[in-house]
Amino acid sequence: MSAQITQKITTFLWFDGQAEEAAEHYVAIFGGDSRVASVTHFPASAPGETGSVMTVEFVIAGQRFIALNGGPQFTFSEAISLSVGCSDQEEIDRFWTRLGAGGEEGPCGWLKDKYGLSWQIVPAELPELLGQGAEKTERVMAAVMGMKKIDLQAVRDA
To answer: Is 125 inside a domain boundary?
Structure first.
């Protein structure tokens, strides 16, 4: 990417040697406006194996990210997650299956991918469904809390 700032805040993800693999994985899943933009390599003066991949700048769904091969010191936790707003059940199913492959399912539309990064695969209309009064909100939340992968029609019917 050029030096021009097109996004004020960029998500920086720390990996233990899988930065390039993860970036290519995410780009393949999201397609469309997604691509690996650049790869940098460790110089001799930096920690890390000289010449190995240091950072990968990539874009998924128009959003810029940077993946760093920082080593084993830090790992992902559920304290940070990436939320994917889905327009229909087909999209929920597709992202749930592809991002969850080799990972771990969690409650309420959350999963960890094979790199340990947490994702929320949720219907884009969820905030609207939760904003239709206290009684509806209670029913929608109860439905969502009882699910792993979100069943959009069941949430709508709640």
So the answer is: yes
Phi, psi values for residue 140, rounded to 5°: -65, -45
pLDDT digits over 72-116, tens only?
999 999 999 999 999 999 999 999 999 999 999 999 999 999 999
147 and 87 together in one domain:
yes
Name the pTM for this structure: 0.91
**Token digits of residue 150:** 């979100």
Q: For strands 35-41 and 53-60, give the pairing.
A: antiparallel
DSSP string, the chain: --SS---S--EEEEESS-HHHHHHHHHHHH-SS-EEEEEEE--TTSSS-TTSEEEEEEEETTEEEEEEE--TT----TTSEEEEEESSHHHHHHHHHHHHTTSEE-STTEEE-TTS-EEEEEETTHHHHHTS-HHHHHHHHHHHHT-SS--HHHHHH-
Q: Are residues 65 and 86 in the same domain?
A: no
Q: Rounded to whole angstroms, how far apart are CA atoms 130 and 21?
A: 37
